[in-house]
Hints:
alpha/beta; 3 domains; 18 helices; 12% strand
Amino acid sequence: MLAVSHVWSPKISAIQQQPSLSPQPPEVRHLAIENPVQVFLSIERDPQFPANSELWHDYISVPQWTDQLKSRILLVIHRIFEEAQTTIIHFDGLTPAVVDKLHHGTTSQERLRGLTAVCNEKWFTRMWTAMEFVRSRSVRMMTGDFQLVEGNTGDDPAFLRTLQEVWQREAKAYDGNVWALEGSVGMRTSENLVPWNLGPLQQCSEIDQFAACAEMTLAQTGPDLNDFVATLGTRLFGEDTNTMIQHINSQGIAKDLENMLMNHYVCRSWRPDWRVDSLGLSGTDAIMWLADALYLNNIVDGFTQSRLGQMFTHAGTVHNKRNSSKIISVTCTYCHKTSLFRAGVYAPANEVRLARAWRIPGLQYQMALKDGMAVLEKDGRILGRMIWATPTCECVEMEMVELRMPDLPNPQPYNSTG
């Protein structure tokens, strides 16, 4: 099944809000029927989709004047988009020419026109489309003339990655003067939007956060490749260690990666740039290469984002973002090895210090890694949890931990007689 995420036509919306027997202009009735049909015909011609694909489009899939049935459908729309094989995002106001300018504009002016046109799309302003987007497994984009955008769009849902990349490149061309760049697209003199208007304000970008984590990891593990990969990729970003090692070996980049870690580790400069000398990469390009090498830029199965992107969404939420998602160091009491983990904490940092970390064998949740569930305990209180806390050493010791109940108020007696 394929589901369509779109913004309603004002004409159709106005008719839908009237009683069922109100006059319905023929052109509006045709629009409500022809739009879903045009979407379906475009899908039918695309080789990506099976010939027997079914289409869910709320113009025709939701009986607008059967209130009882309509209400029941609205309650489960999130499940419809969760279970759909692909969500078709229909950008009614975009033309193929605008999309081409965004991706392939030959001048800065062309690229920025494409960028602002996409950012101004009404699809980005609706609560329903936001819900449909975050619930979707994968997406394809469609322009206003019912053409599906060609190419692999799985790693660029709703053009969000391209918007950020184009914006960053243009900011560099302005020598980092974002204020001037915003002025050039009329952000303060018109209603034009730019990429950062489309999402939550973030203190750092995905790649900046990853670079900081890589720096901490290398300081802790040293240039040991396996330990570095397991710590950064698995315990901080949730990717399977074996998957990353297999990817590194299949790409033949183990030596490049080892040299990168060693050179950065022994460098005596203050905050040196990351470098991959064998490939001539440095700075952000080197960090992006490192993320690719660890398979962290690939789309996670069942989601529409990479491991890096997930830290600002679902994975960040399960780690109590923002102020309570921490990277902590834990020392084994037997071999004294100290390792880094990502944890969601429930108490101030000063209270969490010197807490004990207990791994819970056999406990498993949806986003948890095998043998990765653990809690932080201090004086019988649980102060945090970890879901990617895979073993870092061979030490195994079972202990029974006694936890005390929090001071909850006593329940009020229930009077069954009223």
